[in-house]
Amino acid sequence: MATNGSYEIIDHDYDVVVIGAGGAGLRATFGMANKGLKTACITKVFPTRSHTVAAQGGISAALGNMGKDDWRWHMYDTVKGADWLGDQDAIEYMVREAVPAIIELEHQGVPFSRTEEGKIYQRPFGGMTTNYGEGTAQRTCAAADRTGHAILHTLYQQALRFDAEFFIEYFALDLIMDEDGSCRGVMAWNLDDGTIHRFRAHQTVVATGGYGRTYFSCTGAHTQTGDGVAMAARAGMPLQDMEFVQFHPTGIYGAGCLITEGVRGEGGYLTNSEGERFMERYAPSAKDLASRDVVSRSMTIEMREGRGVGGDADHIHLHLEHLDADVIHQRLPGIAETARIFSGVDVTKEPIPVLPTCHYNMGGIPTNYHGEAVTLKNGNPATPVPGLMSIGEAACVSVHGANRLGSNSLLDLVVFGRAAANRAAEMVTAGASHKPLAPDAGDNALARLDKLRHASGDTPTSNLRIQMQRTMQDHCAVFRTGEVLQEGVDKLDQVWGGLDDLHVSDRSMVWNTDLVETLELDNLMTQAVATLGSAVNRTESRGAHAREDFPDRDDEEWMKHTLCWVDDKGKTTIDYRPVVLQPMTNEVQSFPPKARVY
After folding, report:
1. What is the pLDDT of residue 476?
2. pTM, entire model
3. 292 catalytic per annotation
4. Do residues 267 and 320 lie in contact, with contact meaning Cβ atoms separated by under 8 Å?
């Protein structure tokens, strides 16, 4: 045990440490443990409370159980959905691994819904087509409308089976970096007893999820604060493609709770105040199953033009009352319950009030398709950072590019969680000795903790957080202009200044939720700044990034990934890395850019 000022530090040595116990973190954790590596998983909430538990609609794979399908069609849909900003080598890897990944999940115990002949049930989902855009694919494997719940619980059971060690309700503070830029582990705070822990590992895997809570209205849990992404930014890493934030078309009006796209996959549809099924105007062939950014913008245009529903014309109706009640209770039981609780609606009799709500972050820590974190070094934008990996929503492998297709995220978790486990097994020798840490390793994390713990200004954390969230909601949402984005940048600059005036009322180290929320706000601010800074810089419209002052996609100038560094003053520096347009193998041809219409 070491000491640092007022903090005692408990040291741990592992072959690998995974931060986060959602779908990606658990898949990596049990995969690494299964390969004989001494594995620790650090998580700030109990594993089955991780936000993967809330994923509803399903997980995509070209199984072909409900009609002909092909991984190449899935690849085309994903490249097109990504508006050609996705890396085609990583996308090929993901869609090819999808089929064995689903079968593996089934064998591990995921209770998928079944067809009459006992195969895994698959439903249609936005942007998923057959024959390169000609028909509608039934590609999304579902466990009713609680697919994430089924997968997360199964993965946790597998991790326990393979004797991975869990550090539950530990808050990760900061990565431990060497002077040569390699990652050596992570500092964490045990919320239960207030102790500080220093984890040393040959590989540290960031799987901390997205940062949806930078926005006021969000489908994510309150824990969705992107802690690992901010830790990487503080460690000098660039954040990639942060301007691309997906708004899910159907969050419950007022509450933000998600209503899965699976509702529309099962035959649900949207109407405006005139009762018109307006998606037929915007996406004549895909209609209500166009990709999420297209549907979100169409809804927003309807409301802007005065055809929104309600006294303030500020939401849209989602109908499933025409569906058979048995179908609803068999395939969408959670949705019926959520609508009843959060909007007082009986879905068999009346429509659900919905509006676009912040849902998913395409950006994050740049990685390759092995899960290794990469950075721009000596002109090479794909230089691996030794000892650091990232997977899931925290990472940007760029399989989602400028816009993620629904049901590709659960796939991303299991495919790249498994890839990271395989890569770690190649690179790490089980039980290999660790070189000594620098005497001051982790001191920066404790200095930050100490500063926030003793913050004695006049601004409560919640006040500053709402300022940040409203700034993001007002200045960086479904439609953007340079002027509005720049106003947002300036406002966030002022909010950042407010970090020096924070007031934390609880100074204790045991279950100090005030301090936890303050650390989370600090993390969110870094990502909010990167998102707005990257968005004001990209002068085109692509996928989820829709600029009214630059309505067209500009492949000549902007077919590149944004890299954004955020310094300790909240200032951004921008650079780029090229989009990988070549697939991984020659079994599929590159899909050249074309207009993205549904």
Report:
1. 97
2. 0.96
3. yes
4. yes
